Amino acid sequence: MQKPRRATLLFSVALITAVAMLPVGVAAQGFPVKPVRMLVGFTAGGAADVITRMVAQKMTEQVGQTIVVENRPGAGGAIATERVVTAPADGYTLLMMTAADTALPALRTKLPYSLERDLAPVAMVAVSPFVVVVHPSVPARNVKELIALSREQPGKLSYASSGLGTVSHLAGELFKSVAGVSIVQVPFKGGAESVMATASGQIDMNFPNILSALPFVQSGKLRAIAVTSAKRASLMPVVPTVSEAGLAGYDCSGWWGVLAPAGVPKELIARLNAMTLRAVNAPEMQDTLTRQGFEPQTSTAEQLAARIQREIVQNARLVKLAGLKPE
Question: What does pTM read for this prediction?
Answer without folding.
Answer: 0.86
